[in-house]
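pasting for the record
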Amino acid sequence: ERLTRLEATVQELIKAQKETEARVQELTEAQKRTEAKVRELTEAQNRTEVMMHELIKVQEEQARDIKKLKDDMSSVKGRLLEIYYHRRAGAYFGRILRRVKALLPSDLEEELESKFTPRDWLDLLQLDLLVQGRPRERKELGEVWLAVEISAVVDRCDVERALRRAEHLQRVGYLAIPAVAGEEATQGARVMACQAGVVMILDGQVAFWDEAVERALAAKKTGD
């Protein structure tokens, strides 16, 4: 009887071991499936990261293209404004000047070049527009020259260039007044133009003319 019970116990142990082995096998297979799923998820994540990286590159390229397009459009607009101001100088500058004449420095090369250093002359040649005329309200001043920088959106750099190039003319004896013209201006440009005595013409409206005339007269007296 003891032997019978022992055999029964052994059979139960064998059965339990087989069940354990089967369970272990199931767990092993489940782990393999989990590992396979993790690999799939990892690969999917890697693909997603690659796609995101490519998407970011595309967006950056689009942003650069848009910026370049805006810059190009601004440049084209600026060039068109230069032509427009040149052709319609009387309409734009006739409010403050009589006998308006629009020129480029190169138009007066024979008259002007010898008066400047090579460096100043090359800089003056970059001036967008040179306007001659006689002030309507200050007739005693005689002929004045406006050194005009033109841009769709006038900024501080435009104001600085107008100042510098007007100073070239002032140094050789001309009553030169710096001016900027365009459709709109940055706040920094407005403040600088007012403080430095630079005429600002925005969409046909003239500002800081009196201040600019007084500054130019003071510069001429200093030069004399």
